[in-house]
Amino acid sequence: MRRIDLIIIHCSATKVTQDFSPEDLEACHKGRGYKTTGYHYYITKDGQLHQCRPEEMIGAHARRYNAHSIGICYEGGLDANGGSADTRTPAQKRALIALLRALKVDYPDARILGHRDLPWVKKDCPCFDARAEYLTLTPLKLEQ
Ligand SMILES: [Zn+2]
Questions:
Q1: Is 65 a catalytic residue?
Q2: DSSP letter at 98?
Q3: Radius of gyration of the chain (CA)
Q4: Ligand 1: distance of its center to the CA of 144 in Å?
Q5: ω before 119 within 30° of 0 (cis)?
Q6: Is 52 a residue of the active site?
Q7: Helix (H, G, I), strand (E, B) or coil at 94
Q8: Is 38 within 8 Å of 63 (Cβ atoms)?
Q9: For site-directed labelling of 20, which of 12, 77, 82, 130 has its Cα 20 to 30 A away?
Q10: d(Cα 18, Cα 9) in Å, to the nearest integer?
Q11: 100 phi and psi, to 5 degrees?
Q12: Contact 59/53 with Cβ under 8 angstroms?
């Protein structure tokens, strides 16, 4: 098993008015020379969760931090004019919380951060304060 101590949240940096499908994302990342989408999970505006790589596979989303992290991306992050904005839909917020609570079961010691919370990152990604928002998140309680 790969050691995971970070869960890193990203946005796709696409306009809220634009549709950016999992296939679009994959094509974009393949264009950069990645084998497939760099994130492990992608959450589209409709709240659908798409697995892009297995958790065991090292991601390509946060330089220097890929080896021991999980990368999650939500569709959006830019307003209609291209400015940074928290464009998450209620469905995306619900899907993010559900995914994070499930991941905390498997990786109880992992910290949840936004991409911009990492050192040397000059982007606004994911365009909201993920660290504060998910600080008190509790692992999903599994039925006995
Ligand atoms: Zn990012």
A1: no
A2: H
A3: 14
A4: 37
A5: no
A6: no
A7: helix
A8: no
A9: 130
A10: 20
A11: -65, -40
A12: yes
* Annotated catalytic residue, options 15, 29, 104, 115: 115
Structure tokens at 19: 């549709």
**Is position 10 annotated as part of the catalytic site?**
yes
50 is catalytic: no
Where do the domains of the chain lie, and which CATH numbers do they carry?
A: 6-133 (3.40.80.10)
pLDDT digits (tens, 9 = 90+) for 86-95: 999 999 999 9
Q: What is the DSSP annotation of 107-144?
A: -TTPEEEEGGGSTT--S-TTSS-HHHHTTT--PPPPP-
Find the 106 Cα to ligand 1 centroid distance in Å: 23
Asked if residue 141 lies in contact with residue 104, where contact means CB atoms within 8 angstroms, the answer is no
Task: Report pLDDT digits (tens) over 96-137.
Answer: 999 999 999 999 999 999 999 999 999 999 999 999 999 999
Beta strands in the chain (DSSP E): 6-11, 14-15, 41-43, 49-51, 69-74, 77-78, 111-114
Supply the DSSP symbol for 6. Answer: E
Is 123 part of the annotated catalytic residue set?
Answer: yes
User: Which residues are close to ligand 1, an ion, with C-beta < 5 A?
Assistant: 10, 115, 125
Confirm if 8 and 113 have CB atoms less than 8 A apart.
Answer: yes
- Kindly report the backbone phi and psi dihedral angles of residue 74, in degrees, each rounded to the nearest multiple of 5, phi listed first: -110, 150
